[in-house]
Design brief:
alpha+beta; four-stranded antiparallel beta sheet; 111 residues
Amino acid sequence: MKKYIVTVNGKKFEVEIEEVVQAGSKTKIEEVRKETAASFDEKEIKSPMPGTILDVKVSAGDKVKKGDVLFILEAMKMENEIMASEDGVISEVFVNKGASVATDDILAKYK
C-alpha cells in the first residue's frame, strides 16, 4: 500500500493506493512484455524505390544469410535484387509477385 497526498481545487487529501493483482495477471504481463520485446527485435526490409515485385524468393520461416536475394524489384526497366543485410529468419512477407510498391514500403520482416 502506498500513501500519496493529492491536491484538488487547493484542498489536500491523503490517499492510500493498494496494488491489486489478479491471479495469472503477472503471467499475462510477462507475455505482453516478451511480445513487445520480440517486435522490437524484428527488422524491416523496405523497398528502396518504387516499382513492381517480379519475384519473391522467401517465405515466412525461411532462414537467410547476409547477401541472400530476397526479392527481385523492377524499377525503370531494370531488375534490382533486394538482399538480406544480415543473417536472420523471415517472420512475415507482405508482398506477392506482381505487387506494385512505393519507396519505403515494407516488403518483409525478419529477426
